Amino acid sequence: MENTVTPLKAMEIMRELSRQNIPFTIKFFSLNATEKTSKGIVEEKNIILMQGYRRNQSKKADILASFQRLDTGENRQFYWPLLCELNGRKIKP
Predict the structure, then answer these.
(1) Model confidence over 25-68: pLDDT tens digits?
(2) Which of 1, 5, 48, 65 allows an S-S link to 80, with CB 3.0 to 4.6 Å?
(3) Given this model, what pLDDT does residue 86 score?
């Protein structure tokens, strides 16, 4: 298995893991586009992807990924192009 993957390949892997209900860990660069702020690199553990916004619901539907924190049931989102690690594997731009 190669050490790095592209963001698109990482999304494919995360979708397949989520379909199988297998939780995973990601790291991504945080971005609050509304407030133009970042908290740096954020790590989310024990998550699975969920259905995101449709194009008619958000202008950012193509770049936002929705996930659920399995420990708390909380639903969150991140900009998938800012993904930098999946289960310890580095993401290359």
Answers:
(1) 999 999 988 899 999 999 999 999 987 665 656 566 678 899 99
(2) 65
(3) 96
Q: What pLDDT score does 64 carry? A: 87
Q: How far apart are CA 56 and CA 38, in angstroms?
A: 26
Instruction: Find where tokens 């993401």 sit.
Output: 91
Per DSSP, 22 falls in state -
The answer for residues whose C-beta is within 8 angstroms of residue 52's C-beta and 6 or more apart is 61, 64, 65, 66, 77
Neighbour-count burial for 38-47, b at 16+ CB within 10 Å, e otherwise: eeeebeeeeb
What tokens were used for 67? 């996930």
Indicate the SS3 state at residue 9: helix
Instruction: Please give the single-letter amino acid code of residue 23.
Output: P
67: domain range? 4-91
In this structure, what token pair is assigned to residue 23? Answer: 């939780």
How far is it, in rounded angstroms, from Cα 58 to Cα 71?
27
Predicted TM-score (pTM) of the model is: 0.85
